[in-house]
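Quarterly update, task 2.4: glutamine-bound model.
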Amino acid sequence: MTALHDLSVAQLAQDLRAKKMSAVEVAEHFLARCQADTLGSFLSMDPQVTLDQARLAQAQLAQGTAGPLAGVPMAHKDIFVTADFPTTAGSKMLAGYRSPFDATVVQKLGVSSGGAGMVNLGKLNCDEFAMGSSNENSAYHPVQNPWDSTRVPGGSSGGSAAAVAARLLPAATGTDTGGSIRQPASFCGITGIKPTYGRASRYGMVAYASSLDQAGPMARTAQDCALLLSAMCGPDLERDSTSLDVPAEDFSRELTGSLDGLRIGMPQEFFAQGLAPGVRAAVNAALKEYEKLGARLVPISLPRTELSIPVYYIIAPAEASSNLSRFDGVKFGHRAKDYTDLVSMYKKTRAQGFGEEVKRRIMTGAYVLSHGYYDAYYLQAQKIRRMIADDFQQAFKVCDVIAGPVAPTVAWKLGEKTDDPVANYLADIFTLPASLAGLPGMSLPAGLGEAGMPVGLQLIGNYFKEAQLLNAAHRLQQATDFHLAQPGGQ
Ligand code: GLN
């Protein structure tokens, strides 16, 4: 019999509904695996809370009131606020913080009434306030890549990716501001999707850069991502001013497996020098499979790809410097012990509570927004952001989806880039363009590259084309076994 942790979200949901096992048994199995985790994936767990949720899911299944994913376990990136678990955003600033409410995404996936019925195993490690590409900016501890414990899992949703790859849980949430779902999915050999900006509510997501932040699922297959994404999306107009009034879709219904003349655009800038040979080979092999399946590859250009790095690293810190001003020791989170007056309390609280990378970004953001520099940096960046979005619209005139690598290399070694923030920023080159344009993007396994580490294939779609992306990914996963490769020894 297949072990419970080898089952997909789809299979678990079906078996629970067919009463082949109970939600409590499933929760106990996964809890035991999570408690034995040696990768550092979790920031908090609370077995009693998890088991209570499992009992509730079981009761809903028995009464026929259960949501579509009732009893299937998952865990949330510690950026989503939860009433039942602490929320830290990976920061000392929020150590021990407990939210009085659940984020919309948490509520939509969870066991409360109207939710999909998933059982929460706890909160997953991430870079502090989602700033980073390696999870090493977590104020608590780094996460190890399950494929090689000396390497990073990617970031900022590193705990989510490592936990799914190590089969500690079948699915998790992540957030993507500049690549934080796609890049860790790529580094850990799993599947993840960031929907169109505005499709999933940001309510209750600790804000990093509000015009870019988007929630999305991470799982082993496109089919499982489709199941979670269907539950996560939908308008939340009252609570998130950037939520789009676009109805939720059942993405799993659209997994027809038909590629029917799909035109896949290959941006020349994504295949330029600097791409690791093993990454290039794996991405090309996956694209060859698409050709065999009937898709057509077309050369395209996204001429401002390189500019997405300076543009993102101006806009995101600018928004972060504003968003993070709320952490001042007054309303919530850490407050310095010894201070003389209000200003000294602010200063000491923020000096103690924030890590180095967060401080670096607050300073950069304050600088680019300051009088005299606003026009030269922030305004220019906004203009180029618009051009980057326009470049995609040009490209979508000749192709349906865009494909390329997620990152220039496989997962690097822990510690390799910690002293060099710019080296981290440069590694985001292929994920930032879609983020700046607000487009949906995903990563799916495309085989192994350097050092036998996983390589992700990135697919980018036009606005609201999540179904098309998921279907294209699903088709590849039906025809190949890239997504079945597993880290050794798990
Ligand atoms: N690596 C990027 C950064 O450091 C993206 C992070 C994210 O998407 N949250 O900002």
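Highlight for this quarter: Residues 130-133, 156, 176-180, 208, 316, 428 surround glutamine (CB under 6 Å).
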